[in-house]
């Protein structure tokens, strides 16, 4: 299969063009959208494997686009924003973004984040091709398949983002073991954890909401206060 196609949704043409240059140099296909409505339309009509989504855009802002996409699509989303405050980052992650970068950013770091998201989402380095088959995990009433990136609760399909799936697979693959936020972050994001990082907490919250909704209120992920998170067998 061809290289991943990435949508850059940003009304700042200079930033969009700069990102495109770096992605094209890595062999990715690139699409561009200059406002939120155009971005949403392209996500729904084109073959897009990852979205780089600016928060502040005309027509629809990035948060609105992210909410609309997450209603029925788990495509990886890397959100960009000129705002560095923790609450702005948390809002981006709460709407379903997989990762978040603050402008101005280093384009090489952005490319590294893109590669990491594609690896986690599709099991590849830079190209979309089948990865090695993994065993399916069955825990409590959940059936979690690494190869297909699907989660089933009996006959219900639970739509998770790639990050939510990776956190669930990590916890479910080690039943009864408690993982700290630091351990989860470093295992899933493959990056160094910072003390003020709320990323894991936000993704765990989103993941819990989806699981509990599908499981009629059952709570498979437990918090061990002051330590971390676990799933019992």
UniProtKB/TrEMBL annotation:
Chain ranges of the OmpR/PhoB-type domain: 134-233
GO biological process, one term: regulation of DNA-templated transcription
Pfam family, one: Response_reg
Places the protein is found: Cytoplasm
Residue ranges: DNA binding: 134-233
Gene3D superfamilies named among the record's database cross-references: 3.40.50.2300, 6.10.250.690, Winged helix-like DNA-binding domain superfamily/Winged helix DNA-binding domain
Domain Response regulatory: 5-118
Primary location class: cytoplasm
This protein's record includes keyword 4Fe-4S: no
GO terms for MF: phosphorelay response regulator activity; transcription cis-regulatory region binding
GO CC field: cytosol; protein-DNA complex
SMART domains for this protein: REC, Trans_reg_C
Keywords on record: DNA-binding, Phosphoprotein, Transcription, Transcription regulation, Two-component regulatory system
InterPro entries: CheY-like_superfamily, OmpR/PhoB-type_DNA-bd, Sig_transdc_resp-reg_C-effctor, Sig_transdc_resp-reg_receiver, WalR-like, WH-like_DNA-bd_sf
Post-translational modification 4-aspartylphosphate, affected residues: 54
Record's protein name: Response regulator transcription factor
UniProt organism field: Cohnella rhizosphaerae
